[in-house]
Design goal:
The chain is mainly α. It has one domain. The chain contains 10 helices and no strands. α5 runs antiparallel to α6 and α6 packs across α10. About 30% of the residues are buried.
Length: about 220
């Protein structure tokens, strides 16, 4: 993401504009992700996120500086976890799974909306809003889609504190799950190592590209492309 911009041959103003687009995409993607965690928990009877002020789109309530930087630079990252009290759910395990998956699902949905709008703009053309503005919007939409897919896929990895680790609670025996969670404090270190492994990044990029192309096929089918 960021490194590709810095290595590009564009002018300083073009690079600055692209960086601003990346900042916008990063803030929006993380905020939607965490807000939807909180909304899902709230809908299931847990008001912890509401009392913590996390049912908001404001990025200042959700940002984890390192996670945001990773998303900004690499396209894969995380935000500050939303506080959840599973005891407030009628079904503790089921409630935690729904709450955990709400974040990635929101990113998959936001990515699809971005791709859909981008394809719609391509079908209509740039005559209505102008070539320059159209190009900026298209760049923002493509990056928003890619970043949200990266955020969704990355957070489904079953390593604490990512959302995928919470889904394990539904498929593993409680005793096994709690043994795994004893090593939760090492999850952050494992994530940093994974992000810096070339084959891991290639695998995640392959997944993101696959979903992106699938979304494109759906949108093109709608607009007769």
């Amino acid at each position: 993401m960021l490194f590709n911009v810095l290595r590009s041959s564009g002018s300083a103003s073009e690079k600055l504009l692209y960086i601003l687009i990346l900042v916008f995409c990063t803030l929006l993607s993380l905020s939607v992700h965490e807000m939807c965690h909180g909304l899902a928990a709230y809908a299931l009877g847990d008001r912890t996120a509401k009392y913590a002020g996390r049912l908001t789109i404001s990025p200042f309530s959700h940002l984890d500086p390192i996670g945001a930087l990773c998303l900004f630079c690499f396209g894969f990252g995380w935000a500050k976890p939303v506080p959840v009290n599973a005891r407030n759910f009628k079904n503790m395990k089921g409630g935690m799974v729904i709450t955990a998956l709400a974040g990635p699902f929101s990113n998959f949905l936001l990515a699809f909306i971005a791709v859909f709008i981008a394809i719609a703009m391509s079908a209509v053309g740039s005559a209505i809003i102008g070539v320059g503005v159209s190009g900026i919007i298209m760049t923002a939409l493509v990056n928003l889609a890619a970043m949200n897919l990266g955020l969704a896929v990355f957070n489904l990895i079953p390593i604490p504190p990512l959302d995928g680790s919470k889904v394990l609670n539904a498929v593993l025996p409680s005793q096994t799950y709690f043994k795994i969670m004893q090593y939760e404090r090492f999850g952050f270190i494992a994530l940093i190592i994974l992000i810096n492994l070339p084959f891991f990044n290639r695998f995640l990029n392959w997944l993101v590209s696959g979903v992106f192309e699938f979304y494109q096929h759906i949108a093109l089918a709608v607009f007769g492309g």
